[in-house]
């Protein structure tokens, strides 16, 4: 007898405040140590473990499967709140939530297996990018049939960079190519095996505790059921990945607003050419804070709008209308690009403007307020917005659809130098 796995979209929203209140005490504890963690370069292992133990990694899993049943707008509101506590952590979990999303829209018996793992607190990392001599479109990391495996398993060999979150993960979502048929795949590798090593060697000036760095696979074992054809990947993946960075940017502005307000509230020194007897009452200083707050409001609204487009793309995966599904996925990609162009400027400006209210003391390395700008500037540099702006313009003028998958690598003239 053949069994058929049927799933429907997880579109019925749970109450957001009830959901968020489960995690806000953890967010508060995370915020208390965020600056010190960065200054000491201490990765948030304990903080991520506390979140996953509380069910944060399974908020998108349907209630019937043991999760919280959150919609995508609710997920991104949570990620924005978390980013306001520590913008590194939602980026470290970016690959996890993308893999959860992929499993949610998948079918077959492995879907239930993965949802159970997420509910049990297991998380996935991200390992896609190769640098150096690899040409654009090529994949050096290979997945080969394991001749010693009785169950038809595989072995993975290769090196990945910018493998954000993998150092915290139980599983690693790895982009690779099979050697037996050249098909590009996702190899979901168990991180707890001798053939997998990680290095925390990301050297960016911001987002320093995301655990991003080099992941190396040397004859790492991967089961046959965990080698997934890349072409079956969820269609709104690039828009989803970008939306996590949007939440990082929005949260960075919220954190800047919070910290500048605290500094101004507690400041006792004033300037003789200022406008009030206390800093907290000076109208020009209040104007600066008000402008930062307004930008935080606009950022959260922008993330919400992009998340709603993603929710429509997610729900379309279950409609059985391919033309409508493609249309909604194109719109989700377009809206995430529009949001990126706006927020990249908004966040870097807002996190820079905090210093206009604090004068020289605001640049103290002990206060570490510059981390908000550095983190926003770094997150904004992912997936260059200048290309996105052109793509948006091409759609507006010529109706050209945005690409939903792209790659990075050496250009065709690189070997001629």
TrEMBL record:
Q: What keywords would UniProt list here? A: Oxidoreductase
| One term of GO molecular function | 3-methylbutanoyl-CoA dehydrogenase activity
Q: Where is the Acyl-CoA dehydrogenase C-terminal domain?
A: 251-383
Residues covered by the Acyl-CoA dehydrogenase/oxidase N-terminal domain: 29-122
Give any single GO term for biological process.
L-leucine catabolic process
Which Pfam families does the record associate with it?
A: Acyl-CoA_dh_2, Acyl-CoA_dh_N
What name goes with this protein?
Acyl-CoA dehydrogenase family protein
Name the species this protein comes from: Arthrobacter crystallopoietes BAB-32
């Amino acid at each position: 007898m053949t069994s058929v796995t049927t799933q429907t979209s997880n579109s019925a929203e749970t109450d957001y405040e009830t959901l968020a209140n489960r995690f806000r005490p953890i967010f508060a504890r995370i915020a208390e140590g965020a600056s010190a963690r960065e200054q000491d370069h201490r990765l948030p292992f304990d903080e991520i473990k506390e979140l996953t133990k509380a069910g944060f990694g399974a908020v998108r899993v349907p209630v019937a499967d043991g999760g919280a049943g959150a919609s995508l707008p609710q997920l991104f509101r949570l990620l924005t709140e978390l980013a306001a506590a520590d913008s590194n952590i939602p980026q470290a979990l970016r690959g996890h939530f993308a893999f959860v999303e992929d499993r949610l829209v998948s079918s077959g018996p492995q879907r239930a297996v993965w949802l159970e793992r997420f509910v049990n607190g297991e998380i996935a990392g991200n390992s896609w990018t190769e640098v150096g001599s690899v040409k654009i479109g090529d994949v050096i990391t290979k997945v080969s049939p394991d001749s010693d495996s009785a169950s038809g398993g595989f072995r993975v060999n290769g090196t990945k960079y910018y493998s954000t979150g993998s150092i915290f993960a139980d599983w690693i979502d790895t982009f690779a190519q099979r050697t037996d048929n050249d098909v590009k795949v996702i190899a979901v590798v168990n991180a707890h095996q001798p053939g997998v090593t990680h290095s925390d060697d990301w050297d960016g000036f911001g987002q320093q505790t995301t655990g991003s760095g080099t992941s190396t696979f040397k004859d790492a074992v991967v089961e046959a059921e965990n080698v997934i054809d890349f072409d079956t990947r969820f269609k709104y993946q690039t828009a989803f990945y970008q939306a996590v960075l949007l939440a990082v940017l929005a949260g960075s502005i919220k954190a800047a607003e919070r910290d500048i307000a605290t500094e101004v509230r507690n400041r006792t020194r004033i300037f003789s050419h200022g406008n009030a007897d206390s800093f907290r009452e000076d109208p020009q200083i209040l104007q600066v804070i008000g402008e930062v707050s307004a930008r935080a409001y606009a950022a959260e609204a922008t993330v919400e709008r992009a998340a709603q487009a993603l929710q429509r793309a997610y729900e379309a995966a279950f409609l059985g209308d391919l033309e409508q599904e493609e249309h909604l996925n194109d719109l989700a990609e377009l809206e995430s690009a529009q949001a990126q162009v706006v927020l990249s400027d908004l966040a870097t400006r807002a996190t820079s403007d905090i210093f206009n209210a604090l004068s020289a003391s605001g640049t103290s390395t002990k206060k570490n307020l510059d981390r908000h700008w550095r983190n926003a500037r770094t997150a904004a540099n992912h997936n260059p917005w200048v290309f996105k702006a052109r793509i948006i313009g091409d759609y507006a003028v010529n109706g050209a659809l945005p690409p939903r998958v792209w790659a990075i690598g050496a250009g065709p003239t690189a070997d001629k130098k």
